[in-house]
Design a protein that fits this description.
single chain, alpha/beta, TIM Barrel, binds ligand 7PJ
Length: about 280
């Protein structure tokens, strides 16, 4: 069964409405805001999250970039609070070389880069941390990526991109067993593109490279079900379950409890138990 990566947003403009940062009363890095993050983290861990993905830069469609200092001010206090309280692996959603270095020093266990280490200096910074890295595909950038996504053959193009990024990381000296890939559902993709990529999940990664998949509460769930963000839990769980059946090694979700139950059902049906698979060793 895949590991469950619980989403822990540390941004003021998270689209999915987990609402930790509403308003100026919750300044970054301090006070009630941090208490709220810790409380949410405790809940996600209790519900069965194997990893917590902490993000200080919103990459939702239309989001503006933030500076390294803003990202660090959002993320470092959260990492400090989580590492001292919970026995959970912390993943950091970042594209910034400086942020990668600093979060690694602060105890992060995984770098999750929606830009697949394409920023100048990012491969070198990630390699120097020695941490596992998730390389995600995105067409365009968050500001404009949903304007007019276009591909000749979306599956071939995403597969080739992921293979090229894995090769670039290997050429920079990163151990192949530290790499994971993600087709980047919703990142410069229409519903048809997303569905084609989901169907192709078993063949999207270079041989032996684990796949991360994230659909949670995304627009594609709304397009299929007709539901607003707040009502996309069931659709999101269905997609996570399908991704698990199609071989995903990690599913990135907001709704950990619901996803954990669904994955236990799948494990019982497929394997007669809820035991976890070899991906555990890769991430540890
Ligand atoms: C993803 C992500 C995803 C990975 C976001 C959102 C937008 N990282 N970061 N995969 N999505 N690896 O949660 O809707 O799909 S941010």
């Amino acid at each position: 069964m895949p590991l469950i990566m619980g989403i822990l947003n540390a941004t003021p403009d998270s689209f999915s409405g987990d609402g930790l940062f509403a308003g100026d009363a919750c300044p970054e890095g301090r006070g009630p805001y941090l208490d709220g993050v810790v409380a949410r983290a405790a809940m996600l861990v209790a519900q069965g999250a194997d990893l917590l993905d902490v993000g200080g830069e919103s990459t939702r469609p239309g989001a503006a970039p933030v500076s390294d200092d803003v990202e660090l001010a959002r993320v470092l206090p959260v990492i400090a609070a989580l590492t001292s309280r919970f026995d959970v692996l912390i993943s950091v959603d970042t594209s910034s070389p400086k942020v990668m270095r600093e979060v690694a020093a602060a105890g992060a266990a995984l770098i999750n880069d929606v830009r697949a280490l394409r920023r100048s200096g990012a491969i070198e910074a990630a390699a120097a941390t020695g941490l596992p890295v998730c390389l995600m595909h995105m067409q365009g950038d968050p500001g404009t990526m949903q304007a007019s996504p276009h591909y000749g053959d979306v599956v071939a193009e995403v597969r080739d991109f992921l293979a090229a990024r894995v090769a670039a990381c290997a050429a920079a000296g990163m151990a192949p067993e530290l790499l994971l890939v993600d087709p980047g559902f919703g990142f410069g993709k229409t519903l048809e593109h997303n569905l084609a990529l989901l169907r192709a999940l078993p063949d999207i990664a270079p041989p032996g490279v684990p796949v991360v998949a994230g659909f949670s509460r995304k627009r594609m769930v709304g397009e299929i079900t007709g539901r607003p963000v707040a009502d996309r839990v069931h659709g999101s769980v269905a997609l996570a379950l399908l991704a698990a059946r199609l071989g995903a090694a990690v599913v990135r979700v907001h709704d950990v409890a619901a996803t954990a139950d669904a994955l236990k059902i799948l494990a019982a049906v497929e394997h007669g138990s809820t035991a976890r698979g070899p991906i555990d060793e890769l991430i540890q």
